[in-house]
């Protein structure tokens, strides 16, 4: 697929996916949504792509659903819409799938509101510029959170704070975002992408097998009992014995006091 609303660039093992509709503050149109589904699966299935960085072109990360585009979308009948909900990977990106266990970093510059906030919540780590603004601003248009807002936001900031932000729709600046756990790191304006890419390359140098296994286990344990979670975690350790690069490589390197070498990137 040729992208018209995105830029997909891979440097070694790091992919930078840029939302590229700056005149619309990178709001997500139906075309961009289709391209996003393809881009995420492309990253997921690329054996040489280890870490994804998502960001926005211009002065915004993503301003949400493109309501001008949505206004032209004829409301489908109920049965058609029900089928669409079951089959769709998301209306505003690859938001209803849980099958990407490689690390994802968001470089958030400017507005990250409505579906843009939901997009930021897809990331495991959020590097946030000082001019970033988050919020469930779709409140004013009577639009519900349909791309993970009510699922992922409580996991990131806690139930009470998520409820407040969802009900009020108020904006949250970078420093508050850091305080409540929505931002992992705040950097000066204009430096979010460079810092995110720097971190992505650092992560890409690590053995990838354990990272992916632990991320998948953590995600799948959400909402389970402690007993279920511990059993899932224990079962996940079996992956150590199925990799091309055994964990014993790391153990022997530790014993010998040297840095381990991973011929297959720990996979």
How would you explain this protein's 3D organization?
The chain is α/β, with parallel strands linked by helices and 267 residues long. It is 41% helix and 16% strand. The chain is built from 11 helices and 10 strands. The strands form 2 sheets. A 6-stranded mixed β-sheet has the order 1-2-3-5-7-10, with helices on both faces. Helix 5 packs across helix 6 and helix 9 packs antiparallel against helix 10. The longest helix is centred in the first third of the chain and has 16 residues. The two termini are 28 Å apart.
Q: What's the quick description here?
A:
The chain is α/β, with parallel strands linked by helices and 267 residues long. The protein is built from eleven helices and ten strands. It has helices spanning 30-45, 67-70, 78-87, 115-120, 149-157, 159-168, 174-180, 192-204, 208-220, 226-236, 247-256; strands at residues 6-11, 14-19, 51-56, 60-62, 104-108, 111-113, 125-129, 133-135, 172-173, 185-187.
